[in-house]
Each structure stands twice: as C-alpha cells, then as structure tokens.
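2024-03-11 09:14:02 DEBUG pipeline.ingest accepted 1 chain
2024-03-11 09:14:02 DEBUG pipeline.ingest length=552
2024-03-11 09:14:03 DEBUG pipeline.predict start
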Amino acid sequence: MTFNVKNHHDELLFLPLGGSGEIGMNLNLYQYKGKWLMVDLGAGFADDYMPGVDMLVSDISYISKYKQDIVGLVLTHAHEDHLGAVQYLWDELRCPIYTTPFTAAFLRAKLTEMSFAKEVKITEIACGGGINLDPFTIEMIPLTHSAPEMQALVIRTELGNVLHTGDWKFDHDPMIGEAPDEERLKAYGDEGILALIGDSTNVFSPGTSGSEGDLRKSMIQLIGQCKKMVAVTTFASNVARIETIARAATANGRHVILAGRSLWRIVRAAQESGYLTDINFLQDSEMAKYPRDKLLVLCTGCQGEPMAATTKIATGNHPTVRLSAGDTVIFSSKIIPGNDKKIFRLFNKLVKLGIEVLTEKDHFVHVSGHPCRGDLEKMVKLIRPQLLIPVHGELVHIHEHAKLGKQWGVPHTVQVANGDVVRLAPGKPERIDKVEAGELGIDGYFLLSPESPVMKVRRRIQKEGIIMVTLLMENNGQLYADPIIKAPGSLDAEEDSELLGYMADEVRDALGDIRGKISDDVIYNQTRQAIRRIMKKEVGKSPLIEIHIAKI
C-alpha cells in the first residue's frame, strides 16, 4: 500500500476499515489536519471459513501506525457490531473513548475481565450533547434504535459538516427513548450537510421499519396463547426488546427468568443508567419456585451460537433450564445471513423435542432497528446532503443505497469498501486510494487472519481430516516396530481398521526398500507419498498428513 496521509494533511478524508462490505465490524475513520477521529469499533460473526472462531474484528494495522494522532473514539451506541471489538483492539490503539452514560456503563462491564480495564479513559457525554476534539467538533443527535441512547453524529470541520447516522429508524412509538427530532434534522439540512454517511442494512426492504410499540402488542398476544413454559431468545444488547419481552410476560402473569451472562451484564448496565428499573428479573436458579406455565425464560443465542443458553437448553446441557414437549420457544430476532445453517439446526433440535418454535418467518415477533427504504429516503429529504456514502452493509446493500441516493436527488454518491480512502473536501468527492484492510478472528487469546497458516490447516482438516503417523526408528534408519497410524476425521479406528493396516504395511514396505542409513527428510517423503497414494485411490481424499519420528 502506497497511500501517504501526509500528502493530504489539509483534506477531509473518510476511511472505513469495517462495516463496508459486511454487516458488522463497524469501524469508520475521519482525517483532517493530520488528526484522526474514529467512530465505532465493532465486532462481527464468523462463518465456516473461520472454523473454531465465533467473532471477527477489523484489521487495524493501518490506523495503529497513527495511533498517536487519534483524537478519540466516539461510540454511537451499545451494540456488539459497534463496540464489541474494543476489548480486543483498544490495547493496540490506547485512545480516549467518548460516549453516552449507558454505552459507557455497558462497555465498562465488558472490560472488567481485561488486564487494561483501569487504563481505558471513557468520557461520558450527555445524550444530545457535544464535544470538541480539535480539529473536529461533534454534536450528538439522539435517534431511535433497539439500544438506549443511540446517537448520530454531526461532525463539524472547517471544510464542511458530516452527518454520521450510526444505526437508526423512524419509530412513531419507541419503547426506549424518544422519537427522532425531525425538526432538528431538518435544521441541520438547512444549515448544510456536506456528506451523509449512513446505514444500508435494510435498503432492500420497502416501506418503513416497524414500531417496537406495535411489536409489544403482538408479543403480549402470542405469549398469552402459550399454555406451558415459554422461552424467548433475542440479542442480549437489544434493550428495547428485553423490555418488550418482560412487559409482555408480566401482562400474561409470567415471571421473567434471565439465562445468559451477557443478558445480566446489559440489564445491570441498563439499570445503572435508569432503564428497566421497575422490572423484576429472576436468576435461572429460582425457576423451581414457580409453576412452569407461569415462567418466561429470556435467553441468549438467537443466532444459534453453540455456547449460548438457547443451544445448551435445546441440547439438554443447560445446568438449570429444561424444556418439555408443548413448551414454546420464540426467536425474537432477525435470521442474519451466514448464520442460517446454525439457526435452522437449532430449530430442528427444538422441534424434535416436541417444542413449538415461533420465528420472524411466520409470526410478528421482530421489528428491525434499522431504516427501510422509505426511512432512508425520508432522511435524505430532511438532510439534503451534497454527498451520500452508504456504509453498514454488504457491497450489494451499498450499491443499491447509492443508486437510490441519486434517484432521491443527491448530487454525488460514492460506493466504498473497507480500506477505500475517500476525499470529502475540498473539491469533488471521490475515492483517491486504498489502504490495508481485512478481518481477524478472535481465537481464544489470539487474533488470526483468515489466511494464517493455522486457519488454512483448520479448513483443510475440517474438509479432509488428518492422518497422524508415528514411526519408531532405530539409529540405523530401520523401523523398530510397525507404524502407528491414527486418522481422526478421515478414517474410523474400528470400521476402517483394515485400510489403516494396509497403510501401515505400505509405509513399512516403502521404508524397507531403502537400503542403508537414511535421512529424516527421506523418511518423511516416502511415508507421506505412500499414505497420500492410498487415500487418493481408496477414499478420494487428501487429508493433512503429520509424521512423527521417534528414535529408539
């Protein structure tokens, strides 16, 4: 990469490093006068291409080189795809963080297990407040979303104003917070907005996003029709939905049990900030005190996560929660593309147990926290930007949003992908270069690239299996005993014992044909060729082959 930001010192630049090419991992940067402003630092879900990995974060190698020039990280709201990477990446950046009281409380709770937790400087900004991070002046605008205190940002510079929307929707009956102040948005449009940089998630959905208030009425009715115990799973960070479910349970005379550590974490953060304070949530250990038909279990795992409460309940591995035939599980969430297989496997497990499963596919159990096409058009008409840059979406979402922006009268649109450097001002807005960008998998305590040697080996083992050969060799290079061959994921020790024995014979013969003392390299090559030949011929596979030589 050859981009040199020093050559663009007096230009206002925009650079997405996450969230432009996928839904999740939102990380956006603004540069002016040699200083960088970071907006959000989110995580995303991994797919089968990263076996053993649940969460992804953005590759920040480019901006980490300029960490001394980061004036601050501003978090728009408390959702994992906007702040979930802070605990993994902050130590590399060590920049101050600015956000609202609720988001700050939630973030502090997430950071408690990190060694650097006490070193993170988090400054709380009142909703609708502002902050000066020279050369940027930022004003927050409260917008409705499924998390409390979601704040869009008006980023003021000498070259013009940018509206960075974050996640939002127009909701006529929000359950958390106030409805968006459309007059204030229009006033910013009157003043002049150079660029609107915003959410593209639901660009293919016509009309407007549904209201959380309307959903609450539906949930009350659906839960009222359930005869036995009810479990509801949703995103733990969706505080508006947690309240909706709890109110619906109470309306039907049910006690609310929380199952999942992340649910308790966000509920406590919400209560510290003045939300959910009049709802009595119970521990799952208290279930035995009440009749099963008077319980509603609110649990994590709506995306089929293997270690979350819903999957543990479905597989009978949860320590306290048990489901029986005739119980109901409600998935109050969207089926995120890429998670389909995991989620439908979970549906099938539950149905096999005789449990009723209600999803967004056949019942009104979810409304999006993101703007649909009608909402997007309304925002454009209120703001009247000179430039539209769609973010927060896959490339097809961004492309469609940009096309619609032109139809709605926006003079300029720029389609971006992670790593694109866009000059916003002065002059005509356009992409001017590209920097290193990508994703990293959270693998225990490590960050791994999808193309790292470890992940390449995992994918091969996942697809082909592995064969492990132990050779006991005398110092003269001759075999001391028959080769020991194990083939987990490739062959079964009992069912394929004859084939494994055949392999051992072939390896012994291949090494026996070599006269005199031989090097380890020759032993490795001869053994690998013998096994590869048999596996290709007999099984049609090319597993990873690992050989260990022990000298006797």
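2024-03-11 09:14:41 DEBUG pipeline.report The first helix runs from residue 61 to 64.
2024-03-11 09:14:41 DEBUG pipeline.predict end
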